[in-house]
TrEMBL record:
One of its GO terms (cellular component) is cytoplasm. This is Coproporphyrinogen-III oxidase. GO terms for molecular function: 4 iron, 4 sulfur cluster binding; coproporphyrinogen dehydrogenase activity; coproporphyrinogen oxidase activity; metal ion binding. Its main location: cytoplasm. The lineage of its organism: Bacteria, Pseudomonadati, Pseudomonadota, Gammaproteobacteria, Methylococcales. S-adenosyl-L-methionine 2 binds at Y69, C70, A71, G115, T116, Q176, R188, D213, A247. It comes from Methylomicrobium album BG8. Residues 48-284 form the Radical SAM core domain. Belongs to the anaerobic coproporphyrinogen-III oxidase family. GO terms for biological process: protoporphyrinogen IX biosynthetic process. Its EC number is 1.3.98.3.
């Protein structure tokens, strides 16, 4: 499979509009408060009858300092004591949910995200994993994909050794940019020494995969300065890189109001940075997975994409399409059977529900047949850049050309522009269209016309 991209500035300028990132379809905006814990329990029971492995996500929202660019669900505090009652409640939620899922279902995937998971002390991390293991069937053979997001500023050799002992085998490090001026502008001061010492420790202790997060479009960035950051990152040879587009949405995210808009790179500079990144990474041998993600050709993501087994969920690209995703903690989102479920968003409500032995369900959505059909189409396109009509027709008992007649007409101008090739057999996205895959997926989104595009980031 060709896993390359072509940077066509003319196409990007024409198609660079706001739209969903499709970590799910329907998107999280379709979740509603009419979905209750009773509905969730029903879907769990149905899921147990079907069986299959599980994926667990734990949201640990605390951060010691605020990064001005951040759009995550977080609680910024210097007081480590705030984690104590939250962890108590999280352990109770694990017990409640664990009692509902069949213990024969093995956990193939596990992820701690945030926030900053390493905000927890060593003892707290040990407790969280022990409670999880007591109520779910975690693997002991290291064949699962157990990952954690790391802030190198809060991590040392002992932390890495303990995390490996707890069963983690994948690690993701937030970097964003090494330039000191950029770091000061976004309030994230982090040295190269801090970063690479953590990477080296992870490799020494047998972590199977390392991911680096970078962001382009931050204040004071230039092609030259970001290229220097990329030089240092490429020298360390991480297995994966996530190079995110900074979406400046200060009306939605209060911390972004501390960024001086005059310092943000002009649109042409931002595009030049993206072009440089794509060129440098592909020249270094990385495969373009899609949606800001690059991986070495021997990485599991790249292999899964070539073999047609890649999937996309609320954590991004995944190799575990067969897993139901169970979310724990405030704001976490899961997917169980044919439903998406999100927990309550604030500590007070979470505490109240847990104390009353209730699942902290805030909202959710049941997928109908059309949702599942369109999800299959969007997932195939966003993961593999191609779609076989026959496969969809067989799975959903439809005639593709008839069911999606309007969508096919909308795709024809995209074909004329060189984003894709449309035939009677299916859709093949061109290397020039892969950076704009969100635009192609939006054609199949029946909810999008009802939404305010300002709720989404731009595709580039």
């Amino acid at each position: 499979m060709d896993q390359s991209i072509i940077f066509d500035l003319n196409l990007i300028n024409r198609y660079d509009k706001a739209g969903p990132r499709y970590t799910s379809y329907p998107t999280a905006l379709e979740l509603h408060e009419g979905f209750t814990d009773t509905d969730y329990r029903w879907h769990i029971a149905k899921s147990n009858r079907a069986g299959g492995p599980l994926s667990l996500y734990f949201h640990l929202p605390f951060c010691d300092t605020v990064c001005f660019y951040c759009a995550c669900n977080k609680i910024v505090t210097k007081n480590r004591g705030h984690a104590v009652p939250y962890l108590d409640n999280l352990c109770k939620e694990i017990a409640m949910q664990g009692a509902l899922f069949d213990k024969s279902r093995v956990v193939d995937q596990l992820h701690w995200g945030g926030g900053t998971p390493t905000f927890l002390s060593d003892d707290q991390m040990q407790r969280l994993m022990a409670v999880t293991r007591a109520h779910f069937s975690l693997r002991d053979d290291d064949r699962g994909e157990y990952s954690i997001e790391i802030d190198p500023r809060e991590t040392h050799e002992g932390t890495i050794e303990q995390l490996r002992g707890l069963g983690f085998n994948r690690i993701s490090l937030g970097v964003q940019d090494f330039d000191p001026k950029v770091q000061r502008a976004v309030n994230r001061l982090q040295s190269e020494e801090q970063t690479f010492s953590v990477m080296e420790a992870a490799r020494r202790h047998g972590f199977r995969s390392t991911n680096i997060d970078l962001i382009y479009g931050l204040p004071l960035q230039t092609v030259e300065t970001f290229s220097k950051t990329l030089d240092r990152i490429l020298a360390a040879r991480p297995d994966r890189l996530s190079v995110f587009n900074y979406a400046h949405l200060p009306t939605r995210f209060k911390t972004q109001r501390q960024i001086h808009e005059a310092d943000l790179p002009a649109p042409d500079v931002k595009l030049a940075i993206l072009q440089m990144v794509g060129l440098r990474l592909t020249e270094a041998g990385y495969a373009y997975i899609g949606m800001d993600h690059f991986a070495r050709p021997d990485d599991e993501l790249a292999i899964a994409q070539r073999e047609g087994k890649l999937y996309r969920n609320f954590q991004g690209y995944s190799t575990h399409s067969d897993c139901d995703l169970v979310g724990f903690g405030i704001t976490s989102i899961g997917r169980v059977g044919d439903a998406y479920i999100q927990n309550v968003k604030d500590l007070e409500t979470y505490d109240k529900l847990i104390r009353h032995h209730k699942l902290p369900v805030f909202k959710g959505v049941d997928l109908d047949q059309d949702d599942k059909l369109r999800r299959a189409v969007i997932t195939q396109l966003i993961c593999h850049f191609e779609l076989s009509f026959a496969v969809i027709e067989k799975k959903f008992a439809i005639d593709f050309a008839d069911y999606f007649a309007r969508e096919i007409e909308v795709l024809k101008p995209m074909q004329a522009d060189g984003l894709l090739a449309l035939s009677a057999e299916g859709i093949a996205v061109s290397p020039a269209g892969r950076l704009l895959i969100r635009n192609i997926c939006m054609v199949f989104d029946r909810y999008l016309a009802q939404k305010n595009r300002q709720q989404f980031s731009k595709v580039i």
